């Protein structure tokens, strides 16, 4: 999912270092060490840097951010209308590519040109991520290919994982956006594959425990469960690390 896709970039959000005027804890969060771990992080970073260096000078990071938001809105509308025609699924897939460009390229462009605005970019990037994820998830839920409840669960799971990432940047000084090997780009590719199968007329409906569901429902439920399980594992490790650094007070009788 949304895109899920989400958690988010393998590169800093439009910055090389935070503003000296920012409080120390804010500077620590904004400049927290990025740890890209997902499958396509390396090739994606190289591709984005190559594209960024070839963009016209009049294109600015905020233009790409706006493009990503508009693409997310378009994806939601396309999914909601896909019950009328399978052509909307092709439109959703094309807009997922546009969303990848806008969502992933803005920070790279700022970094390549040295025009980063650290706190502004940090705030805007993550706000836009949350809005875009909510729009895409709800668009999926309003389509005939996914239950609205499944779309809502996906959005909530993504946002909870995102909150954990932001907490880690404050408490642990690292910004690890990937949970396992799958990130937003991999989620988009998976969605495009499912869109293509549906648009080609493949019957991806099934019955589980007497309830009719689609392949997107099954994928969404499985993804949400995997996301929450990954969160539980990571939160446990984080709490252990923090408890070691800050041991609890002894219990007195």
Structure, explained:
- The chain has about 250 residues and is mainly α.
- It has one domain: CDP-alcohol phosphotransferase transmembrane (TM) domain (Four Helix Bundle (Hemerythrin (Met), subunit A)).
- Helix content is about 65%, strand content about 5%.
- The protein is built from 8 helices and 5 strands.
- It has a two-stranded parallel ribbon.
- Helix 1 packs across helix 6 and helix 3 runs parallel beside helix 5.
- It starts with a strand and ends in an 8-residue tail after the last helix.
- The N terminus is likely disordered.
Core attributes:
253 residues, mainly alpha, Four Helix Bundle (Hemerythrin (Met), subunit A), two-stranded parallel ribbon, two-stranded antiparallel ribbon, 8 helices, 6% strand, flat, disordered N terminus
